[in-house]
Amino acid sequence: MSAARQQRARSVAELAQLLDVSIRSVRRWRHAGMPTEKDGTWRVDRVRAWRSEETSRNRERGGLAAQGITSPGGRGPRRADEVDELREARAELIRLGCRGRELELRERRAGLVPRGAVAALLHARRDWFRARLLRVCAEMTPRLAALDDPIRVQAELEAALLDVLEEAHSHVPSSARDSAASPPVPE
What we know:
By secondary structure, this protein is mainly α. The chain has three domains: 3-76, no CATH class; 79-112; 115-174, no CATH class. The protein is built from nine helices and two strands. It has a two-stranded antiparallel ribbon.
């Protein structure tokens, strides 16, 4: 006999590694009647042959056994009502998970402002700002016309614009003002 046919596993872990399956699968196979040598070891070639026969038998049985649905301890196929209960329990678990995610999403959305409301607020702020700047122009024109010094004109314009910016800033909620860093003001 060749060395490959004589290959033996001395532990469940070793057999699992040699067959490239999980330890849990090997334990399940032991309970299902996997052939064991008298000395407690497993011949890999015999285990492979047994698995092949078991797979063929499951396919021939059709139905649940072919799908790999067996009762605890590998005692054969589950009854149809057990399978239905399992499927329903899994479906309920999935539904509960979905409901939980929906609730988390609703909770997160509760803290958010709808996009339309934000857009309306931004439009209203833009309109206010435009109107206020135009009013500054109307208020400043007579004063600036009387000034001959361009530096004095620039200072008056800067002061007026800073007043508008300060007024706009006062309309921002304090929580937003505190969290936003103010840009440096040129001197």
